[in-house]
Amino acid sequence: MPVYEYGADRRVGSSTLSLGGSPVFVAEGLFADRIVADCERAGVPGEALVLAPSAARTFARRFARDVAESRKAVPLLLRRGCGYGAAAARWCAGASRPGWCAARWRSRLPGCAPGWGAPDKSGLVLTGGMENTYENLAEFTDVDQAADPAVFVDLLQRLDAMPQTVRLRELSYARLGTGRGVDVGSGRGTVVAQLTARGLTAFGVDLSAAMVAEAERLNPGHDFRVGDAYALPAGDGELDWYHSERVYIHLDDPDRAAAEAYRVLRPGGRVVLVDLDSDAMSVATDHPRAARAVLAASSDNLANGRSGVRAADTLRAAGFVDVEVQPYSPVHTDPEVVWPLYPGPGLAIAQQTGAITAAEAEALTAEARRRGADGTFLAVPALFVVSAGKPA
What we know:
The chain is α/β, with parallel strands linked by helices. 37% of the residues lie in helices and 20% in strands.
């Protein structure tokens, strides 16, 4: 193992670690990720965690510690600390690979210490120890104001890689037509890149500057803009098509957004909305009443939780015609995939409102963990691809 000396700011030697017959050991620190592969090859399995705390809080704590211990000169500490945020994001991105799980040790509820099925000080049972980084899907309404926007980039990355998402997008792309258009809520830019590859002229609009920056990094040469679904950067009748995936569920005024879609489309232009009815997810469970209450709480926590099933009426009200609805119900057998919807934040909300007890919450988390381990977990969300046209 390397021996590092703070004053010299470099490795000054090495040492040998003997487990002494112990089946496990803990490696903590910035360079711990360097030994994961070697441990796997040596047959020493374990759990690799990437902790992504607040960059500002970490800087303050590190600075106070290093000054108190006189580790380095203050100007050097300040210079390094100012670059910590960007560097930490790169480190976490590099470590967040297969075999690792990202963890965030905090909760949106005051005084809570999340754990897998463990009651916190308030008596609420949370699911923060699951293999994910998403505490509250409702934060998608303003990613840049979230504690760590990178976790939402990670969520979209996982969604992009799912075969269920690939199939869903095939259904939506087939309904767009041709020409120039916009992907509203473009996220990491995957849809814009895919539609461009299909021969369409596409640009992306996202409310989040962090998302736009990530899209530009991942898809150089494509057009991404910071913008609002309620005020798109396009003139009246300028576009041939409009696409939006899993965005209206976060809008508190979907009718206004649909009216904006109508404005920017030419006569005969096409609109496609892809969204879910988060209240209609089906989950295999031995506790149906409690599970139903948690699903309802998760849905009610969103600005427009039943957007998918309401999208057809939203488009008709905006003036669109020839509305078609294509339901899509993908099967998920990994609880981590659906965590933002179930049990997710709904677990705590349902307890706060008295819809379920702490004992029922414990039973649901234990069941999700057990079913995930033995391969019996089953969740089927209700998604809808809703398309329509602007009258010619």
